[in-house]
Specification:
Blueprint: E1 17-24, H1 29-40, E2 45-51, E3 56-61, H2 68-76, E4 81-82, H3 89-124, H4 131-146, H5 148-159, H6 165-185, H7 188-191, H8 201-223, H9 228-233, E5 239-243, E6 249-253, E7 262-265, E8 274-279, E9 282-285, H10 287-290, E10 296-298, E11 303-304, E12 309-310, E13 315-321, H11 327-340, H12 348-374, H13 379-393, H14 397-416, E14 419-421, H15 424-429, E15 435-439, H16 440-444, E16 445-456, H17 464-473, H18 480-486, E17 497-502, E18 506-511, E19 514-519, H19 521-526, H20 533-544, E20 548-554, E21 557-568, H21 572-581, E22 585-589, H22 594-604, E23 608-610, H23 615-627, E24 632-636, H24 642-647, E25 650-654, H25 659-664, E26 667-669, H26 676-709, H27 714-717, H28 723-742
Parallel strand pairs: 15-22, 15-24, 22-23, 24-25, 25-26
Antiparallel strand pairs: 1-3, 1-4, 2-3, 5-6, 5-7, 7-13, 8-11, 8-13, 9-10, 9-12, 14-26, 16-21, 17-18, 18-19, 19-20, 20-21
Length: about 750
């Protein structure tokens, strides 16, 4: 009798999926931390990264264990929201952001409008009848209605046992209002004890107004920034031309295209999906993929990529990848992931506030207790006065202004020097960069092919240049434009006959009975036109310099050789030298061939370079450097650089580059001068130094002011700090921080 062992089937391993969800209602970096921690705690979620800057959550989860609806419910339970509608997520997020922006603008305008008369009364007309009551009526809506978000956010933080600047604002303004309201309603309490009943309505209202103004300016900057992802999606056409088995041409929505479909793309149209050419010849603009300005010749069997632009000819091609599998879709997805994968950086001031707030509260409570025990006859009066004074003098104005004022001046200084800085994080991080990656085309080079050399051969006739100009005007080759622009001054009206464009070789035509040719060496060889040794040596020398050589011949002999190249910018050498002197490793990445890359790298003094790089390869190279502990800056100008720009620690776009590169990058060079890159790093260093100085002085103010406010001098000389003087000291500390930030304007970059 045999025994059969039955092995139970293995449970299939559940595959995870990654999705990016817009997050609504986040107002600070601590909010992002809260949302992220809640998402990570959901069973089935393998990882979550919430990015406060772009208001998104990148979540990797197992669909069999958790659904997007459950993720949404979890986020909603802590006061935020998650957009799970894939079809309209962008529209929903944009609508919510617009409503949020309008709400902040409304609150800021009213806060300022109501605070101004409070300040005027509090400083100049405090003795008019009912002054305190008027100020209380005006301050109440500022603090508790237009400033309600500070109290709501402080409550959210308290629920998670955290504190940030919102906590400080809510605590100080709330205590100032309550203390002032008590003194307004019941001033006799202090009068009976021989003290004046001071009010601080103006301090509470102005703090709310100023901080609301800062948040409004921040939101306005965000709302003016267009979406890079939206523009990338816009590169894909909505419809395609399908060739049916019968030969009929039908226009279909792109969503209906299947792998294997035979499609047609007309001149000037965008390639709808990835595929391979079946018939036809044309040049295709692939700069979004390769970054190179010269269109690529596409013949039977050549690969096509979605989003690239067909130029002159008509192409029939077979769809190989559609929908989310196309290279363009992969770029879109990877840019989203690279942007969302950056861990939210907790603002330095929020970190300080997390320690500072509990300490201040503790000191205030300790002050009250000590005075109640050792205060004698006026124990309660002194205890209440000193504890409130501690909270007033510790108002977050100086601490809150320390970073944003320096950032605002730094951003303004950048604008004066052709640097458009989009966010504070990049300005703070740029000085830490120790590896910088430069794209070649449009960054190191001009990004536009031009004629660099033109060598006439033998006896030159007066109309040879005009014939060459007329011939190249008839050419479909992308480099022909460089020749016609170079010879624009020689342009005349010539009538060419029997014009023939030979794809991949050049163009021929007859003028006054003679045959003229312009094209590559192969065209001349087929026409049996000799190239002498001297001309061949010149051509070889030019090719070693990464230049493209065009030959011009007529009447059976060589008339001229032309060199065309993407010229290196005049500023590239000096800029790269400055970066290297700072101890920064400089790398060059390009989609161009090895020969051209080596020539350009040698010309500008770069020893580390890689050629034939696709967009994903550039982003992977950034990740490799980051994995070694490098802080990486990426400088680029094209769609092909967008993924690497999103991945880099600091992203810099050239001002003459694509809109998408500028949208993804956090710093844009308004000029094409590469010297602006080392200037940006210097500006970052000086701005961070100013922030540290501001924080130092803000802390010195508190270290000295808080003990005095607590009454530490009373046992020695009977001095108790008046809350009104504490309020003035608070204002003076803010002025000193602002003045120090303004010094940055005079800094040399």
């Amino acid at each position: 009798m045999s025994t059969t062992t039955i092995t139970p089937p293995k449970k299939p391993v559940s595959a995870s999926t990654k999705e990016t969800f817009p997050v609504l209602e986040m107002t600070c970096a601590a909010c992002a931390v809260s949302v992220e921690s809640m998402l990570k705690a959901v069973p089935g979620v393998q990882s979550a990264a919430v990015n406060f800057a772009n208001q998104t959550a990148l979540v990797e989860y197992v669909p069999q264990q958790v659904t997007p609806a459950q993720l949404q419910a979890t986020v909603r339970s802590i006061g935020y929201d998650l957009v799970i509608d894939k079809d309209n997520s962008t529209a929903i997020q944009e609508q919510a952001q617009e409503q949020h922006y309008r709400a902040i603008r409304h609150r800021t305008a009213w806060s300022i409008a109501l605070s101004l008369p409070i300040v005027v009364i509090g400083m100049f007309f405090m003795n008019i009848p009912y002054a305190n009551w008027i100020m209380m009526v005006l301050a109440t809506p500022v603090v508790f209605y237009f400033g309600r978000t500070f109290f709501i956010n402080a409550f959210k933080q308290a629920r998670h046992r955290k504190a940030n600047m919102d906590t400080l604002v809510a605590l100080s303004t709330g205590i100032a209002w309550l203390f002032s309201a008590f003194n307004t309603v019941y001033p006799a309490f202090w009068h009976q004890r021989g003290l004046h009943a001071h009010v601080y309505f103006e301090a509470a209202a102005v703090v709310i107004a100023f901080i609301s103004l800062g948040k409004w300016l921040e939101e306005r900057a965000k709302s003016n920034t267009s979406s890079a992802i939206k523009k990338l999606i816009g590169l894909q056409p909505k419809t395609v031309w399908q060739i049916q088995p019968s030969g009929a041409l039908v226009e279909l929505p792109i969503a209906q295209v299947q792998v294997g479909d035979l499609l047609l793309v007309k001149p000037g149209e965008k390639i709808p999906v990835d595929g391979n050419v079946v018939s036809g010849e044309s040049y295709v603009e692939e700069s979004m993929i390769t970054g190179e300005p010269v269109p690529v010749l596409k013949q039977a069997g050549a690969a096509l990529f979605a989003g690239t632009i067909n130029q002159q000819g008509t192409l029939q091609f077979k769809a190989a990848k559609v929908g989310a599998d196309t290279l363009l879709a992969q770029i879109i997805r990877l840019v989203q992931e690279a942007q969302g994968s950056k861990a939210p950086v907790q603002n330095l001031v929020d970190k300080i506030a997390g320690i500072f707030v509990p300490v201040v509260i503790g000191i205030s409570m300790l002050t009250f207790i000590v005075w109640m025990i050792a205060g004698g006859d006026n124990a309660f009066t002194h205890a209440l006065l000193t504890s409130v004074t501690v909270l007033v003098i510790a108002c977050p104005c100086a601490l809150g202004l320390a970073t944003p004022t320096a950032i605002m001046v730094g951003v303004g200084k950048g604008a004066e020097n052709n640097l458009l800085i989009k966010d504070a994080e990049s300005l703070e991080r740029a000085h830490q960069v120790d590896a910088i990656i430069l794209d070649k085309t449009g960054t190191i080079t001009e990004g536009k092919p031009i004629v660099t050399d033109l060598k006439w051969q033998g006896t030159v006739r007066a109309d040879d240049a005009a014939i060459l100009h007329a011939l190249e005007q008839q050419s479909e080759h992308p480099l022909a434009l460089a020749v016609t622009q170079h010879l624009a001054s020689r342009a005349t009206t010539l009538h060419l006959h029997e014009v023939k464009s030979i794809t991949g070789k050049g163009i021929t035509a007859r003028y006054q009975g003679s045959l003229y040719l312009a094209g590559n060496k192969k065209l001349l060889e087929e026409a049996q036109i000799p190239i002498d040794t001297a001309a061949a040596d010149i051509a070889t020398h030019w090719q070693q310099q990464a230049k493209t050589v065009i030959y011009f011949a007529g009447n059976g002999q060589l008339l001229a050789i032309i060199a065309i190249a993407d010229k290196v910018k005049d500023s590239s050498n000096t800029a790269i030298e400055k970066l290297q002197r700072k101890g920064i490793d400089v790398y060059m990445l390009t989609g161009d061939n090895e020969h051209t890359a080596a020539a350009v790298a040698n010309q500008v003094g770069i020893t580390h370079f890689q050629a034939s790089m696709m967009p994903a390869g550039k982003a992977a190279f950034v990740q490799q450097l980051q994995a070694t502990g490098k802080t990486v800056a990426m400088v680029g100008d094209g769609i092909n650089d967008a993924q690497a720009l999103a991945q880099a620690d600091v992203s810099i776009a050239m001002g003459k580059g694509t809109d998408i590169a500028m949208d993804v990058a956090k710093i844009t060079l308004i000029t094409s001068d590469l010297n602006s890159v080392p200037q940006a790093l210097t500006l970052s260093l000086k701005t961070v130094a100013t922030i540290r100085q501001n924080l130092f002085w803000a802390f010195i103010y508190n270290i000295i002011g808080i003990p005095i406010a607590a009454g530490i001098l009373y046992p020695f000389n009977g001095f108790l700090l008046d809350p009104m003087i504490a309020g003035a000291a608070m204002a003076l500390s803010s002025v000193s921080v602002v003045a120090n930030s303004l010094r940055l304007k005079a800094a040399k970059l």
